[in-house]
Design goal:
It is built from no helices and eleven strands. The protein is an all-beta fold. The strands form two sheets. Strands 2, 4, 5, 6, 9, 10 and 11 form a seven-stranded mixed beta sheet that branches. It has a four-stranded antiparallel beta sheet with strand order 1-3-8-7, with no helix packed on it.
């Protein structure tokens, strides 16, 4: 089973950018659907974006046009480029892996999770 670990979170002003990384080990990310989810204080975990094994990408409406997911198979890493950040993007961001070629927006369908990285956007 693949293990994943996020990095790259931090504090940024509204309108700024951050890039999160998700390093995988134990299996190649190219065989998995990889997703990013986030959870803000007092709120439920929500889907942000995913990339399928075939390279198809999926985004929530709240981040579409601002966030970009990508995958570097050579480095077994998935990235989340976040631009035009807003205070409402503040959350803990989690990387997850799904050992199924069918993409999913449901966190319950993912098998492996990282510990998360905090993203804070100040106004």
């Amino acid at each position: 089973q693949v293990q994943v670990q996020e990095s790259g979170g931090g504090l940024v002003q509204a309108g700024g950018s951050l890039r999160l990384s998700c390093a995988a080990s134990g299996h190649t990310v190219s065989s998995y659907t990889m997703g990013w989810f986030r959870q803000a204080p007092g709120k439920e975990r929500e889907f942000v974006t995913a990339i399928s094994w075939a390279g198809g990408t999926y985004y929530s409406d709240s981040v579409k046009g601002r966030f970009t997911i990508s995958r570097d198979n050579a480095n077994n890493t998935v990235y989340l480029q976040m631009n035009s950040l807003k205070p409402e993007d503040t959350a803990i961001y989690y990387c997850a892996a799904r050992g199924d070629i069918r993409p999913s927006l449901n966190g319950n369908d993912y098998d492996s999770w990282g510990r998360g990285t905090q993203v804070t956007v100040s106004s």
